[in-house]
Design brief:
seven-stranded mixed sheet; DNA_helicase_UvrD/REP; seven-stranded parallel sheet; alpha/beta; 760 residues; binds adenosine-5'-triphosphate; 27 helices; nucleotide-binding
Length: 760
């Protein structure tokens, strides 16, 4: 009886709040319409003003002032319209679900009841909060505290209150579909509902069900480098997107979405997460993949793609190559380059700048300029001064060219069109002036490629310089023969305008060290998802490239597809080496939310150094292992599995190790549903069946996953347990693994009750 009275009271409140939202929506819509008309009217007037007679000087001045004023009016009107439009969107969001939580807090005899939703809502008089934004300090109590004494931050210091009740709601428009009181962070029941639902094409926000351990990460504003080491499906991506929404809300004046950048694993992922921030009323941050970032900075050469390298590695990766790679991709490699550049007599390798085969500025000249500079200057300063001197030398060359016969001849033979473009409508007072001006322009045009080359730092022979650094010293633990062979490979790569992935970070760093460029001071926050896919050298370089950005790095050592081992072993010393002057905070997330208990147990058992992975209590069928004897049978079984799964699930993924296998199965798959072969160029998830190599499925999830050909032949290398774990942990509800011939011992050695084995 009491419970139903409570429910009635809550239902009545929701209806009242929903009615307020509706009223505000209507009023705001009216204001928005008026504002749009006003903007339009001002723009019309602005057009008229521009037509005012500008012949008389006085009129002209007046018109200029009027135009300025009109421009300001337009800007104001547009701003006003933007604010109203944002408000309308916020109200529309609240109308769908006004709030999801309630807390009752008491301070002494003062009692307060607060409702928490995705945005703030005031009552009609603008006096009382009907809904508190989830990011407000007091709302932290909802996510953080169990009942009893709790504290939350205020401008006057920590505020201590008694949390007397925590209530959760599921509300659709003005109807409560579920409501209960809880003492937990966020009750199991709501989470069960959310996690049991079907996969979606876009990631959803988790604002109503943020867990305590996630909340801490979201609200941390003090760390310079915040690292989240979390098991698959622990909500790392969800948490950082919520964190970004939190940071944008709290630093509204100092931080804009444009000052935030996120490194994401691929375009599919970027698109998959693109709706989370807008659903929380925030603009999206910039996203970039590692390959895009490297390619943009090394635009004159072709950069090896991580995915291409992964595919090649599957065919063969000798131990010696792995060892060399480890060194090239280490922080030691980067600091060694720094030491080379900081040597007292360091002089970079330069290259002649040629025009039609003729050297215009020579490396000897450049070296001489460098040597003349005071030894006390930094390398970057010396470089800039050399660059400036080269520009001056070029200017002198331009002046000298003006009087030369060849230039005068060219002037004489200018076509009418060339003359007009060169003179650009200028009038000259004398013939000599005309000859000089046009001659100078012609000379400037002639030497423009050299100017561009200086401007773009092409006089620095970065490739030779890099080779010099490599040849200087063979690192400890690497055989001199393989080091030399590797260095020769780098040289022949350069001849083909190609750079191997391992050389990209060192090469870029070397260039920046010498030129003093390459640093972006605008970005305030930088997020890296899947940090285990970055080598220490790449992380080192990214930190160098964005020196003021606070970093949030997320990863899972167990999803180490590319065998960088960045997140294996002792994390803190490695981080200290990477970020020696930063305040580092490391969080671990061990609860896995994505998959059923059966899938999580199976996936965790695959890992050799089994981390602590806590499965969420959501039961489902055990993973299935199907063994086939012939290729034809394997393909038939995959088709059959897809058909079966599609009777229950909407998004089924066939995950392979390589692109080639994905193409093979795509060619033979027979199902009565849309089938999409995903490639690096695919940007959107699809319903039906998606086929892709595992590296494209990073960070994604599907209702059901079929692991394609998990045979002993294919999964036998040291890193394969991690690949298989990544495949398995993409599945939310069902996992099938199909093998051609004997399945990998990674599976067969597991406890038999972890999966169900069938022979086809
Ligand atoms: N607090 C939460 N409330 C509701 N759902 C959650 C919560 N935390 C995580 N999830 C859900 O769990 C799934 C996995 O989350 P997410 O992709 O953020 O994890 P992840 O740690 O980045 O995973 P991975 O490393 O495996 O890619 C998503 O469906 C997400 O919505």
């Amino acid at each position: 009886m009491y419970a139903s009275k409570e429910r009635q009271a809550e239902e009545q409140r929701v209806r009242q709040v929903a009615a307020t939202i509706q009223r505000e929506l209507e009023q705001n819509q009216q204001k928005l319409t008026n504002a749009a008309q006003e903007t339009h009217q001002i723009e019309l007037n602005y057009g008229d003003t521009a037509k005012i007679n500008t012949l008389e000087v006085d009129d002209r001045m007046e018109t200029n002032a009027a135009v300025q004023q009109q421009k300001q009016l337009v800007a104001l009107a547009v701003e006003n319209q933007t604010i109203l439009a944002k408000r309308q969107q916020r109200l529309q969001r609240l109308a769908q679900s006004p709030y999801f939580g309630r807390i009752d807090i008491a301070e002494g005899t003062d009692q307060d009841t607060l409702y928490i939703g995705t945005a703030t809502l005031m009552d009609d008089q603008d006096e009382d909060f009907l809904v508190y934004d989830w990011r407000s300090p007091v709302a932290g109590v909802y996510y953080n505290g169990t009942l009893g004494p709790v504290t939350y931050p205020t401008p006057l210091g920590p505020q201590r209150v008694e949390l007397q009740r925590k209530r959760q709601f599921t509300i659709k428009a003005d109807r409560i579909t579920n409501m209960f009181d809880t003492d937990e962070t966020v009750g199991d029941e709501v989470l069960q509902g959310v996690l049991g639902a079907a996969a979606s094409l876009y990631m959803q926000n988790i604002v109503a069900t943020i867990q305590r351990e996630q909340n801490e990460i979201i609200r941390n504003t003090s760390a310079d480098v915040l690292v989240v080491q979390g098991v698959a499906g622990s909500g790392k991506t969800s948490t950082i997107l919520q964190r970004l929404a939190y940071l944008l809300y709290h630093s509204r004046k100092q931080l804009a979405a444009e000052q935030v950048i996120m490194f994401s694993p691929n375009h599919l992922f970027s698109n998959y997460i693109s709706q989370v921030l807008p659903s929380l009323g925030e603009k999206n941050m910039r996203q970039v993949t590692l390959h895009e970032f490297l390619e943009k900075r090394l635009w004159e050469v072709q950069v090896e793609h991580q995915f291409t390298r992964f595919e090649k590695d599957q065919r063969s990766l000798p131990a010696a190559t792995r060892k060399l790679r480890q060194y090239l991709e280490s922080t030691t490699m980067m600091t060694r380059l720094r030491a080379v550049v900081q040597q007292p007599n360091f002089c970079p390798r330069f290259t002649d700048l040629l025009l039609a085969g003729e050297p215009i500025l020579t490396q000897e000249q450049m070296q001489a300029l460098w040597q003349q500079l005071p030894a006390s200057l930094t390398v970057a300063d010396k470089y800039q001064q050399t660059k400036n001197k080269l520009i001056r030398l070029l200017q002198r060359r331009v002046r000298q060219a003006i009087g030369t016969d060849w230039l005068q001849e060219q002037l004489e033979s200018l076509s009418e069109l060339d003359y007009l473009s060169l003179s650009a409508g200028a009038t000259f007072t004398s013939d000599a002036e005309e000859r000089y001006t046009l001659g100078k322009k012609l000379a400037q045009q002639h030497f423009a490629p050299i100017y561009d080359a200086i401007y773009n730092d092409f006089f620095l022979d970065l490739e030779q310089q890099y080779l010099v650094c490599l040849r200087q010293e063979c690192p400890a633990g690497v055989s001199p023969v393989s080091w030399q062979a590797r260095t020769e490979t780098v040289a022949s790569n350069f001849e083909r305008h190609h750079v191997a992935l391992s050389d990209t970070a060192p090469l870029l760093y070397l260039r920046d060290l010498i030129t003093g460029g390459g640093q972006n001071h605008q970005i305030q926050y930088l997020f890296i998802d899947e940090m285990q896919d970055y080598s220490p050298a790449q992380l080192f370089y990214i930190h160098h490239a964005f020196p003021v950005a606070k970093l949030t790095l997320l990863g899972d050592g167990a999803q180490d597809l590319f065998a960088h081992e960045t997140l294996r072993g002792e994390l803190l010393p490695a981080l200290k080496q990477l970020f020696p002057h930063q305040k580092i905070k490391v969080y671990s997330l061990n609860n896995s939310y994505r998959s059923t208990q059966q899938i999580t147990h199976f996936a965790s058992a695959l890992l050799p150094d089994a981390p602590q992975i806590l499965a969420f209590n959501r039961p489902g069928p055990r993973p299935k292992l199907l063994v086939c004897q012939r290729l034809l049978e394997l393909n038939q079984q995959v088709s059959r599995a897809c058909r079966d799964l599609l009777t229950r699930e909407t998004m089924v993924a066939v995950l392979t190790k390589t692109q080639q296998e994905a193409e093979q199965i795509y060619a033979t798959l027979q199902v009565d549903a849309p089938v999409t072969l995903m490639t690096e160029q695919t940007h959107h998830l699809q319903t039906g069946v998606m086929i892709m190599p595992i590296y494209l499925a990073k960070g994604l999830e599907f209702d059901a996953v079929i692991g394609y050909n998990v045979s002993a032949d294919l999964f036998n290398a040291a890193n394969d347990a991690y690949i298989l774990y990544t495949i398995a942990s993409r599945a939310m509800h069902e996992l099938w693994l199909i093998s051609l011939g004997a399945p990998t011992p990674l599976i067969t050695q597991l406890a038999p009750d972890l999966y169900e084995r069938t022979n086809a």
